[in-house]
Sequence to fold (334 residues):
Amino acid sequence: MYTQAMDTMAPGEGRKAVRSAEEMQLEERFEARIDEGDFIEAKDWMPEHYRKTLIRQISQHAHSEIVGMLPEGNWISRAPTLKRKLILLAKVQDEGGHGLYLYAAAETLGRTRDEMLDALHTGKAKYSSIFNYPTLSWADMGTVGWLVDGAAIMNQVPLCRCSYAPYSRAMIRICREESFHQRQGYEALLTMMQQGTDAQRAMVQDSVNRWWWPSIMMFGPPDDQSPNTAQSMRWGIKRMSNDELRQKFIDATAEQAKVLGVTLPDPDLQWNEERQHYDFGAIDWSEFWRVIGGDGPCNRERLGARVKAWDDGAWVREAALAHSAKQQPAARAA
Ligand code: BYC
Fold:
């Protein structure tokens, strides 16, 4: 299976490296700190694999926030009222901010922002599968808030306790804002379902039908097909597994769907008294692997939009560098 981790390894790193006694001691100390629930700061010693796992996850997370601005940004000019427009504008701006906190957190691990963006633009780095689906109606703005941001919070609240302190601090701030994102989406859908026309209710149901399965895929592959989960949980990077989070999300969302009055498009979804959880139908993992492999409905469009934004912004970067170069001699003379 293709994994981005391969690209972030130095040559020969895959082989079992010969470690000095000093390195072994450092590693033992690091593992002991993790076992004690200690947080690791940027300047602390850490194993190379821990550093690379974090760079991979945090940079993918940052890319997801930035690419995630596109499907909603598309609807700002078509929002039905001034209030909805202001809410959507604020949400999309928040996502830009989240991307920036996360790039900054990844930079503390020694990867430059240019390197991360280059990996995105050349298709080496992943971003969340969910943003490769189109937003076809206004109801999608509500559904993205309810299901996509809802899944994002479920996944991100445990990351507030990630063992890497700069990521954990970024996540605390991000989760506060994400909770507003989820609630505004749910409230927009509730308004359409309770005060809208039959056509608006049908639009909401159609939107939920399209977003349900991709949303539950956001948590990643099943645990027995997830190459990174075991080690990431051992290191306290991930606090809950993909399947645990997916189940928690389905349990919460199935109840919210009843209040909303929509049907989730899974005939096998039903409460299991014995497990005290909802059972659910089979997920089409071939679709997930296809989408993260670059062949989803909007992969080319999303990446094309990011590359164009980068190219169109070249003059701003050049002007900023020229301005900074002009300031330097003046600053030295002063
Ligand atoms: N999409 O071993 P696994 C948001 C990849 S959106 C694409 O389980 P891991 C937002 C995975 O990277 C959410 N790729 O990996 C909401 C790996 O490939 P590589 C963004 C995926 O890292 C609204 C391979 O599959 N959130 O915030 O242990 C508006 C095997 O997977 C996906 C985050 O990024 C996927 N859905 O677990 C705007 C949260 N799932 O890297 C923005 C932080 C798996 O080996 N990230 N893959 O080539 C995480 O919690 C974890 O990285 C994941 C995956 C749970 C996503």
About this structure: The two ends are 58 Å apart (CA to CA). DSSP finds 13 helices and two strands in the chain.
